[in-house]
Design a protein that fits this description.
The protein is of the alpha/beta class. It has a domain of about 70 residues: Nucleotidyltransferase, domain 5, CATH 3.30.420. Helices cover about 35% and strands about 15% of the residues. A five-stranded mixed β-sheet has the order 3-2-1-4-5, with helices on one face. Strand 1 and strand 2 form a beta hairpin.
Length: about 140
Amino acid sequence: MARKKEFSKPKGPSINLGPFSDVVTSLVIMFMLTIPFLVESGIYISRSLPARLNLPTPQQPQKSDIKVNIHMKADGTILLNEEPVDPAILPDLIPKLLARSIKKQALLSADEEVIYENVISMIDLLKEKGASDVLIMKRVKKQ
């Protein structure tokens, strides 16, 4: 009579899953802690109500409370309220113009060729000098 082959467990060390579960748990906790930083970045971008509703924008000029309108050109010149201004005196002019405004909002636009870091530094300067909001606008090139 033939004997049946008996299968036995291989002799050797068993797999320890303890460190693996520790690493996975640490990763899950890390992701849970970083989600609020991603969601609450502090920069909020929203479209205007006529743009969201696809309504035509009114063509008549409306009185604006914005006293600081800065445009950064690709050649390095800065226009403050459509007038060229020396960047060195800009930190002195911004607080004086914002003092005349009720909402203390500033409007910033730049040519496409302007370096991103220069735009961010201008936003920081406006906030530092007292602007409550910095409105970023895209200008349409005139033909």
